[in-house]
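As a warm-up, study this chain.
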Amino acid sequence: MKDLARDYGLAFAAIWTGVWCFTGVLTYGAIELGGVDAVALVAKADSLSGYDFSSKIDPTYGKIGVAVIINELFEPLRFPFTVSITKPIVDTFRNRTSIMNK
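Now compare it with the structure written out below.
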């Protein structure tokens, strides 16, 4: 892991952020297209926790919040995927740069 951070730190952060945004947009799109009632999901969480957030939440912001939470649940899949694609992507860009500099 230290080697990954040392060799690909900034590139890894950029790739991970891009993958995070991509899965976030896909998650929000699935919620939107699937007609998921985010306020109902928040109300279900309210019944389990004893809080009353569902009456105070805007449906659009509720969908965004649910998408962010679901997107975070994808992290155990997203992290190894990002680790596995970082080296090939960086190597591809390094090879292109070295070819262009010749």
